[in-house]
Specification:
Length: 384
């Protein structure tokens, strides 16, 4: 068993850490307050190749392995969950879905521009009445001559009002439920597509979350990704990728909590002693650090399995559930360590708490991941 990172993985860590410190950290607080989409940051990431990091070089990407890609997301997540969310939705929900399921023409047409960050993408299953149970999707896609015509309402689409293309999972045959779903690549300038950014979110405020209305939205027939009936599989395979990214980003956030807390308890004194000399304070930091290391190992193992092309769904579920819950608990404890200062946005901790709360809900709630792991362990399904 080898726990050493490869040279490429180490290089990616150094490069992205440096980028995130210089380009993301300075505006992370302000962007959160103003709900400002990090477009300039994305524009700076693109020429470095980061918007196509795990995309194969033949499609214009960097061709990073899953381990290195996870480390990139971890370092982005150290400074900003909102940037992480924007990037993972574009790369792992958008571009990689086309790469895995799209026709050769579709891959050639869209993936290089996505990898170069020239076009931005999103992906949506969620609807006002449909969250965890995606087989019940109500949005309809009907074949009409050379087109598909989409009607319905989607919600919570990351990048929905900023993207150039959104992959919409829609129903083609109500009777078939999950087996009738299709995945459709919808240009956001198509007639009948409208997106409205949602405001007032608890966290991930700089990440765009949008409601989408599809009203007789007509798209070319060739914009189906895969075949009719593949939509459920397209979504599940996309989730295996983004759950990994959500977990990696949460590890970054938790590492920030550890580092900020370790520094603070050296700098601040009470009762004539540094805070770090109190055992109850050390206990909070020690727990945070162990849970961060445990989460990181789960993430790296899931990445390793992906790189080996071995089944990774359960390992990814474990990493996503554990890392996001550990990050939420760690952010709470980091605020406690910082006392009243931690309760303000002078430090990033209250933002991390709000942001990682979302990570316990999106890409499968913690409860759904427990059910997935429980089903695999017992052989008995508690849902579906
Ligand atoms: C910031 C943010 C970004 C998002 N981005 C996207 C995106 O880009 N694309 C997209 O499609 N969606 C996105 N979502 C939506 C997200 O995927 C859903 O919120 C998630 O799937 C849960 O669905 P729901 O919120 O409708 O909750 P529900 O499914 O209604 O669940 C509500 C509660 O019931 C529990 N529950 C549900 N079913 C069961 C069960 N069988 N057993 C036990 N407990 C159960 C859940 O765990 C949860 O606690 C985003 C959400 C957020 C917050």
């Amino acid at each position: 068993m080898n726990f050493d990172l490869t040279e490429e993985q180490l290089m990616v860590r150094t490069m992205v850490k440096d980028f995130a410190e210089k380009e993301i950290a300075p505006t992370a607080r302000e962007d959160d307050v103003n709900e400002a989409f990090p477009r300039e940051i994305i524009n700076k990431m693109a020429p470095l190749g980061l918007m196509g990091a795990p995309i194969p070089q033949e499609y214009g990407g960097m061709g990073l392995d899953w381990g290195a890609y996870g480390i990139m997301i971890e370092e982005l997540g150290y400074q900003s969950q909102a940037v992480c969310s924007t990037v993972r939705a574009h790369i792992s929900l958008g571009a990689q879905s086309i790469l895995q399921w799209g026709s050769d023409e579709m891959k050639q047409k869209y993936v290089p521009d996505m990898a170069a960050g020239k076009i931005l993408s999103g992906f949506v299953t969620t609807e006002p009445n449909v969250g965890s149970d995606i087989a019940s999707i109500e949005c309809m896609a009907v074949e009409d001559g050379d087109s598909w015509v989409l009607n319905g309402t989607k919600t919570w689409c990351t990048n929905g009002s900023q993207a150039d293309y959104v992959i919409v999972i829609a129903q083609t045959d109500k009777e078939k439920k999950g087996r009738g779903l299709g995945a459709f690549l919808v240009p956001t300038d198509a007639k009948g597509y409208s997106a409205h950014a949602m405001h007032g979110k608890m966290g991930l405020r700089a990440s765009d979350s949008s409601e989408i209305a599809l009203e007789d939205c007509r798209i070319p027939k060739e914009n189906i990704i895969g075949k009719v009936g593949d939509g459920f599989k397209v979504a599940m395979s996309a989730f295996d990728r983004t759950r990994y990214c959500v977990a990696a980003g949460a590890v970054g956030a938790l590492q920030m909590c550890v580092d900020a807390s370790a520094k603070y308890v050296n700098d601040r004194s009470q009762f004539g002693r540094q805070l770090g000399t109190f055992q109850l304070v050390q206990e909070m930091i020690a727990e945070m650090r162990v849970e961060c290391e445990a989460a990181r190992l789960l993430v790296y193992r899931a990445g390793y399995l992906k790189d080996q092309k071995k089944p990774d769904t359960i390992a990814t579920s474990m990493a996503k559930w554990y890392a996001t819950e550990a990050a939420f608990k760690g952010a709470n404890n980091a605020i406690q360590v910082h006392g009243s200062y931690g309760y303000t946005n002078e430090y990033p901790l209250e933002r991390i708490l709000r942001d990682v709360k979302a990570c316990t809900i999106l890409e499968g709630t913690s409860q759904m991941h427990k059910l997935i792991i429980g089903r695999d362990t017992t052989g008995l399904a508690a849902f579906g």
